[in-house]
């Protein structure tokens, strides 16, 4: 185990600045909680220097996986975005209290309280469990962050040691001690995580026997050394990022906004006070909070989860003073009141997800008719007449990448103007293409096919196949040329 000690300006004992070695990466990342952009680069490093070829035919639909539970047992249900009315129910048994992440071609299930294990599921083999291993007795794992197929971190709520392990064999390879951030009950209560190379961000709720009584934080781990990063170099101790809100709740999200990289976190605060939390943003170039963008008073309750659709439209799940949950849409940069998309009859909405096709999917645990509800992200109109059955009630959602694999530049050869863009772009090629260009998102999913053979330059209006504006983020355009060669180029979309 490696631990960063105190530091001084002359001889820093640990990592000092997020912009020292990775300034470009920090400004390029936009990562959605549930799927990491890193899977694109790590899994296809072997393609660098090789010819990239484009798969013919129509793009394969993506799959949304629902983590389901009745709190006695749990399971995984798969639903195609192409035909959601035909779900594949209860494909794999899991523990009743579980969350999951997708990385490359695997699902990593975190079996939490009462189980304490990581369960690796292969969707390509009929959702078969390929291996499972313990995270330590009574450790209560909460989240997993994958660096590669052979390296991952697990946060554990009832321990101050963050685990690093090899998922391939289930062996612990290192630990990072977070005990310096513990509160009076002796625990720091580490919760959800997000990886933005080379740093791992770990939320620390710092509850005192489950009561909100302390300031919450985000610990920063340098994954190249497994040392804690001192976010305040002038202080005598190693500091984490201090949050304005308390009790960080739900997944983290990294976004590019106005050219800067930010970390978004929902803070619920005290569940007895519906006004003390909200959506908070962290500047990843300074490792300082920018404060709460929109608070619980404006949102109408505790913010339990959120999903970004565009720079001006974010969806959230909030719980009001009566414990009734609602799905809302709001502009995080505006004081305008939120739009209520749908209100439940009780504490029933648990998770929401904006899919690659731009739809809003909501996990509804209604005791009479539980299932998935789908909404148009732009209008808020529900597209499901009744909830899509998931077998057991749905607790959480994740989206698997499409089968069209991501494209990696070799190096970038397509000139894109303007870039970044808030609208459309022109693609200027070195030679005339032999077929339509294809736009992929960061997970390798086909967003749009455009142009025609021989067209040079080509144009793209920034919309998907449904004619809707795509969310902010990093995209790739691939254009086929003679001999099966594909020229590629990155496009940064800002909304």
Can you walk me through this structure?
The protein is mainly beta. It folds into two domains: 23-400, YVTN repeat-like/Quinoprotein amine dehydrogenase (Methylamine Dehydrogenase, Chain H, 7 Propeller); 415-493, Immunoglobulin-like, CATH 2.60.40. It contains three helices and 35 strands. Strands 12, 13, 14, 15 and 16 form a five-stranded antiparallel sheet that branches. Strands 3-2-1-28 form a four-stranded antiparallel sheet, with no helix packed on it. Strand 6 and strand 7 (128-134) form a beta hairpin. The model is unreliable at 1-60 and 403-411 (pLDDT under 50).
How would you summarize the topology of this molecule?
Blueprint: H1 23-28, H2 38-43, E1 63-69, E2 74-80, E3 88-94, E4 98-103, E5 106-111, E6 117-122, E7 128-134, E8 141-148, E9 151-156, E10 161-166, E11 171-177, E12 190-196, E13 199-204, E14 217-222, E15 227-228, E16 241-242, E17 253-257, E18 260-267, E19 278-283, E20 288-295, H3 296-299, E21 302-310, E22 313-319, E23 325-330, E24 339-343, E25 349-354, E26 359-364, E27 371-376, E28 394-400, E29 415-417, E30 425-428, E31 437-441, E32 446-450, E33 458-460, E34 473-480, E35 486-493
Antiparallel strand pairs: 1-2, 1-28, 2-3, 4-5, 5-6, 6-7, 8-9, 9-10, 10-11, 12-13, 13-14, 14-15, 14-16, 17-18, 18-19, 19-20, 21-22, 22-23, 23-24, 25-26, 26-27, 29-30, 30-33, 31-32, 31-34, 34-35
